[in-house]
Design brief:
The protein is an alpha+beta fold. It has helices at residues 7-27, 47-63, 95-100, 163-167, 173-179, 189-197, 210-222, 248-258; strands at residues 35-37, 44-46, 68-71, 85-93, 106-113, 116-124, 129-134, 138-141, 144-145, 158-161, 182-184, 203-208, 226-229, 241-246. GO terms for molecular function: inositol monophosphate 1-phosphatase activity; metal ion binding.
Length: 261
């Protein structure tokens, strides 16, 4: 299968699918949304999440009928291994923001071949910026190539973190934030990944599902950033973990805090 995949074409297709989906989402931005809860009252899903995933899954199936799909809202496949071409789809990352703020949410797709990241695409829907790339492509914001972020220490930059981890001081997050230049809580893994890719933040920590980090992981690692679990171990692409993305120095310093346990 690897010989039949044109990486540039794959990236172009994913960008086209996501851009089209983003236009549809924006058209529904101020609708009277149908909002449901999933695991808890703050874990939301809307009719637009579902429609968007159905659309993206349909596009992938037409273009790559042998591929398998891991989708947040359940319209993909039951995937138990990473053999072959696997797409990870997050139709609206930051649904709470979509519902409450009408901004700071993303559409994301990551494409992996035999467990290796090929292409990641994240679109900040309202801002209109699309981040895309992979190891054979480089990483871009729209058409501008992004340089490798400066290897900052934890103390020299901002740290993105999820609200629950900080509020409950899970895995020394209060200490990590205290050692940084300050915390930033956005509520969308995709948007947080774009901040780290651009060097605006030098790290991000949150409990994430594979569709939350698959696209960002491809681009981050292409730029020399580290993406692991909070203890510095490799991530499983089929299970949830507390995920740590950061510059080499910031990553090492946050991992070191975990050794205090």
């Amino acid at each position: 299968m690897s010989e039949s995949i044109n990486i540039w074409q794959l990236a172009s297709e994913i960008k086209f699918w996501i851009a089209a989906a983003a236009e549809n989402v924006k058209a529904h931005l101020h609708d009277d949304l149908q909002v449901e809860t999933k695991s808890n009252r703050n874990d939301l899903v809307t009719n637009v999440d579902k429609l968007t995933e159905k659309h993206l899954v349909g596009e992938i199936r037409r273009a790559y009928p042998k591929a398998r799909i891991v989708g947040e809202e359940g319209f993909g496949d039951q995937v138990d291994d990473l053999a072959g071409l696997v797409f990870f789809v997050d139709p609206i990352d930051g649904t709470m923001n979509f519902v409450k703020e009408k901004e700071n949410f993303a559409i994301m797709i990551g494409a992996y071949l035999d467990g290796i990241g090929l292409v990641g695409v994240i679109m900040d829907v309202v801002a209109g910026n699309i981040f895309w790339g992979g190891p054979e492509l480089g990483v871009y914001k729209n058409e501008l190539a992004l340089p490798k972020p400066q290897n900052l220490n934890l103390a020299d930059g901002l740290l993105g973190v999820s609200g629950p981890l900080l509020r409950k001081d899970v895995r020394h997050m209060a200490t990590a934030v205290g050692q940084s230049s300050g915390a930033r809580i956005i509520g969308s893994a995709g948007i947080e990944f774009t901040k780290v890719l651009q060097g605006i933040e030098n790290g991000y920590v949150s409990h994430l599902m594979p569709w939350d980090f698959a696209a960002g992981k491809v681009m981050a690692e292409t730029l020399g950033l580290l993406v692991t679990d909070i203890d510095g171990n490799p991530l499983s692409m089929l299970s949830s973990k507390i995920v740590l993305i950061g510059t080499e120095r910031t990553h090492a310093q946050i991992v070191a805090l975990q050794q205090q346990d």
